[in-house]
Amino acid sequence: MLSVFSGYDCFVGRIGPITSGRGKNSANSRKRSGKMKYGELNLGQVEAVVNKLGGMEGVRMFLAGELVVKEAERKFSTWKTVKLGTGLKSADDFRRTLNAGGIKISDWANDILGKPAFSVAAEATEVDLIKVTVAELGFKKGARRDQIYERAKELGLQLCPPEVGPQLRLQYQDQPNNEWILVGMEPIAGSGGNLRVFSVERDGSELWLSGDWGYPDGVWGPDDRLAFVFPRK
Question: Which residue of 62, 140, 158, 192 shows the fewest CB atoms closer than 10 Å?
Fold first, then answer.
């Protein structure tokens, strides 16, 4: 079973599984008395549980078995450290450097690369990244982008600065074939107003800086991989 990590321990530890093993008599007696099984929970606590599950859609997914909530020992670890603020200041700087390295740039990526929302670090710095699938975040059948981002934040992860997209592409040239990684970032509106995020891909011998839909209700599949910032302590 897949697990959702820290942040849900108190939920699992205090109220246990949703289903009851007490049988029909116990359930019927509660109905007759007008009491619920977990009557010690107040409305604020119930609302907090619903929020932790991602709202009513998360509750629906949990009850349908599409989202697993369980105490787990798993801890994140750094997958890759990426350098930002390396001296490339503009979209054209990145385009020239990518092209010089034989790296392909998709139309979508090229578009958002040139938008004002794309920014670079003023000084040299590093960010640690983790790579995680949508399923590893607890969504066995995929989820909307907004749900995925909310879950990542609850687990202590942060969204990537937009510069991570092209810098990861430049610094991850040993990427396995057919791997596609979405950059967990605030989407940038392209020329047509469509929201996009960067992605990095290897297709055969070709390395690509690509783009993907970034709408809040856009669904990513359970096997889709995302990169998020893993904050240093």
Answer: 192
Q: 174 to each of 5, 29, 203, how far by Cα in Å?
A: 30, 63, 12
Spell out the domains of the chain, with CATH numbers in brackets. 9-63 (no CATH), 80-229 (3.10.100)
Q: Rounded mean pLDDT of 48-62?
A: 79
Q: For position 59, what pLDDT does the model report?
A: 83
Distance between terminal CA atoms of the chain? 30
Helices 164-171 and 91-100 pack at an angle, to 10 degrees, of 20
Tokens 């989202």 sit at which residue?
Answer: 67
Residue 126 one-letter amino acid: E
Q: Which letter does DSSP use for residue 72 in this model?
A: -
For the stretch 127-136, what's the b/e string if a residue is b when 16 or more beta carbons lie within 10 angstroms of its beta carbon?
A: bbbbbbebbb
Model confidence, pTM: 0.71
Supply φ then ψ for residue 171, to 5 degrees.
-100, 5
| Full DSSP string of 80-98 | EEEEE-SS--SHHHHHHHH
The helix (run of H) or strand (run of E) holding residue 27 is helix 23-33
Q: Hey, which bits of the chain come out as E strands?
A: 80-84, 104-105, 125-133, 143-144, 180-183, 188-189, 195-203, 206-213, 219-220, 225-229
Tokens 């798993």 belong to 74
Instruction: Report pLDDT digits (tens) over 62-106.
Output: 788 777 665 433 578 999 999 999 999 999 999 999 999 999 999
Structure token pair of residue 155: 């687990």
